[in-house]
Amino acid sequence: xxxxxxxxxxxxxxxxxxxxxxxxxxxxxxxxxxxxxxxxxxxxxxxxxxxxxxxxxxxxxxxxxxxxxxxxxxxxxxxxxxxxxx
Length: 86
Ligand code: SF4
Ligand code: SF4
Fold this sequence. Notes:
Layout: H1 22-25, H2 28-31, H3 43-50, H4 60-64, H5 71-83
The structure holds iron/sulfur cluster (2 copies).
């Protein structure tokens, strides 16, 4: 994971029309590497992450991210890794 692919959690990409909490979900790969990773495996977080499946690929978020992250693909990568933990 290069630094260019790291979400800073600023939230400027939202709101998302699919209801995805991008600023949390795009940082899951970071959360999962922390000591408190189990906090992110609750039903509430599972529901939040599952919303990534509803991404419309509208790219509204991409246009708003000051770091020019490829958010839809970043979300998918985070979700794929998350599923290996649950
Ligand atoms: S591309 Fe996906 S994550 Fe981004 S704003 Fe559209 S629906 Fe939301
Ligand atoms: S705008 Fe970019 S850096 Fe900020 S929360 Fe959204 S994806 Fe992360």
